[in-house]
Amino acid sequence: MRISYNAPVTLSFGLAAATIHLLDTILAGALTSAFFVVYPDFSFLNPLDYVRIWGHVLGHANWEHLLANFTFILLLGPILEEKYGSKLLLWLMVATALITGLLNVLFFTTALLGASGVVYLFIVLASITNIRQGEIPLTLVLVAALFLGKEVLGSFAADNVSQFAHILGGAVGGAFGLLMVGKKSAS
Question: Fewer CB within 10 Å of terminal CB in the chain, N or C?
Answer without folding.
Answer: N
